[in-house]
Design goal:
This protein is α/β, with parallel strands linked by helices. Helices cover 53% and strands 10% of the residues. The protein has a single domain, classed as Rossmann fold (3-Layer(aba) Sandwich). The protein has helices spanning 3-17, 30-40, 58-75, 88-94, 106-125, 143-157, 171-181, 193-204, and strands at 22-26, 45-50, 80-83, 130-133, 160-161.
């Protein structure tokens, strides 16, 4: 499916309605949020939802969180950032038995899934019109998986998911430009301990 085309059609429909729906945007970090916020803030009243217990270690988690808040404050300080409790056990429980799998494996699918489940549940309970995630901005993330999971959560919680592949139409390139403009810290691994170990192994080869 052409998720970018689907997104553009949805945004045109919103524009034609002269309304600004509310959107709960799951975000993993400042750089990934930069272009997505620039793009979507023309159409939605956005609240950022920072739920990422997969990030290791806690110092990295905190750095990404604070970098995100710093960017949002500079970009549009009216955008609210909601931070869920950091509990790494949430991550390890959900990927149990998949620890030895590599990047872009079922382990990553499960990581996307439980974070989007939490996001959709919060969006439904707090009366948002839509929910989505910034994750598809990354060329290392599987947009088909993310949108499949989003659709499943849409049906599970009866709340609209905003289908997207934000890396398209130079989205990832624009995120790099914004990261440079706002002097954002760009991490060199996805977030979990396993992606960190893989990155370190590559460096040490």
């Amino acid at each position: 499916m052409n998720y970018q085309k689907k997104l553009e059609e949805m945004l045109q429909s919103i524009k034609n309605s002269n309304k600004r729906p509310s959107l709960l945007l799951h975000a993993c970090c400042g750089p990934c949020s930069s272009y997505v916020l620039e793009y979507l803030s023309n159409y939605f009243d956005i609240t950022i939802y920072y739920y990422n217990p997969n990030i290791y270690p806690i110092e990295e988690y905190t750095r990404r969180k604070e970098e995100l808040k710093t960017f949002v404050n500079k970009f549009n300080n009216k955008i609210k950032v909601i931070e869920e409790l950091y509990n790494p056990d949430d991550y390890y429980k959900n990927i149990k038995g998949l620890e030895r799998l590599g990047e872009k494996s079922k382990r990553c699918y499960k990581c996307y899934e439980f974070r989007l489940d939490k996001t959709a549940k919060y969006a439904k309970e707090n009366n948002y019109d839509y929910f989505t995630t910034t994750l598809s901005i990354s060329p290392y993330k599987n947009a088909d998986w993310l949108n499949e999971i989003g659709k499943n959560m849409e049906e599970k919680y009866n709340i609209d998911y905003l289908f997207a592949d934000f890396k398209k139409k130079n989205g990832y390139k624009r995120s790099l430009e914004l990261s440079k403009e706002y002097k954002l810290y760009r991490q060199d691994y996805c977030g979990c301990v396993y992606s960190k170990q893989m990155r370190e192994a590559i460096i040490n080869v």
